[in-house]
Amino acid sequence: MTEFAKLPTANYGFPGWIRAQGFMLEDGGTPMLPSAMDHCHATTWSQSGTATSVTLAAHVFRASGTILSIAAGSIVANVGDSEVTFDLKKNGTTVLTGVITLTSTHTAYEIVAGVLSATSADAGDVLTLVVTATDGVGSGHALATGCFAELRVNEDYA
Question: SS3 letters for 89-116?
Answer without folding.
Answer: EECCEECECCCEEECCCCCCCCCEECCE
